[in-house]
Design goal:
Chain lengths: 115, 114
């Protein structure tokens, strides 16, 4: 089954404790992206990657890091999480990294609470 | 900068009636436009897209959207609403050129009453 898998689905942690949210897709997609969803703000793009070793900032990259060492994986790293990063996070992927006209496939989300 | 506006936080409609969810956008050059739907505790699911060509786009589950370049709008429509259409709907845009980032609207909750 074609899917985007995020782990963990839920996480409660404390300020300053480094964490990684993993994202993996099995569709051989070039393009991958991370979003955060907050009430009243919709989805805001954090980082995206058009292919292996190619990443770029979205609209809200501060406090986050990403890497794209393999085509299927695109982990989101919070080096020193803070309470304002409490949110619902989504990973997405799509084919055709350069054209950008393909719909994205979304994971089921990761709910992060940072105390 | 590109942006999307969904002016209604919530739209209420009776089952069987037509529905419209509004979206306007701002982007440099020509746009790629998308509609997604989100059900509780799930990721977003693709409904339809406008790339080029016919201004009326048909998508999944009987939904369609009309691209209006002069009004910079891309409203989502369905002729006859179902209770199962109740969900959160997002409009998204990106430019043909420039940044490859996708910008989403704030979402519109559709409530279809039996």
């Amino acid at each position: 089954e074609a899917q985007v898998t995020q782990n963990p689905r839920y996480l409660i942690t404390v300020t300053g404790k480094k964490l990684t949210v993993t994202c993996s897709q099995n569709m051989n997609h070039e393009y991958m992206s991370w979003y955060r969803q907050d009430p009243g703000l919709g989805l805001r793009q954090i980082y995206y990657s058009m292919n292996v070793e190619v990443t770029d900032k979205g609209d809200v990259p501060e406090g986050y890091k990403v890497s794209r060492k393999e085509k299927r994986n695109f982990p989101l790293i919070l080096e020193s999480p803070s309470p304002n990063q409490t949110s619902l996070y989504f990973c997405a992927s799509s084919p055709g990294g350069g054209e950008g006209n393909q719909p994205q496939h979304f994971g089921d989300g990761t709910r992060l609470s940072i105390l | 900068a590109q942006s999307v506006a969904q002016p209604e936080d919530q739209v209420n409609v009776a089952e069987g009636n037509p529905l419209t969810v509004k979206c306007t956008y701002s982007v440099s050059g020509n746009p790629y436009l998308f509609w997604y739907v989100q059900y509780p505790n799930r990721g977003l699911q693709f409904l339809l897209k406008y790339i080029t060509g016919d201004n009326l786009v048909k998508g999944s589950y009987g939904f369609e959207a009309e691209f209006n370049k002069s009004q910079t709008s891309f409203h989502l429509k369905k002729p006859s609403a179902l209770v199962s259409d109740s969900a959160l709907y997002f409009c998204a845009v990106r430019s043909y050129t420039g940044r490859r980032a996708l910008t989403f609207g704030s979402g519109t909750r559709l409530q279809v009453q039996p």
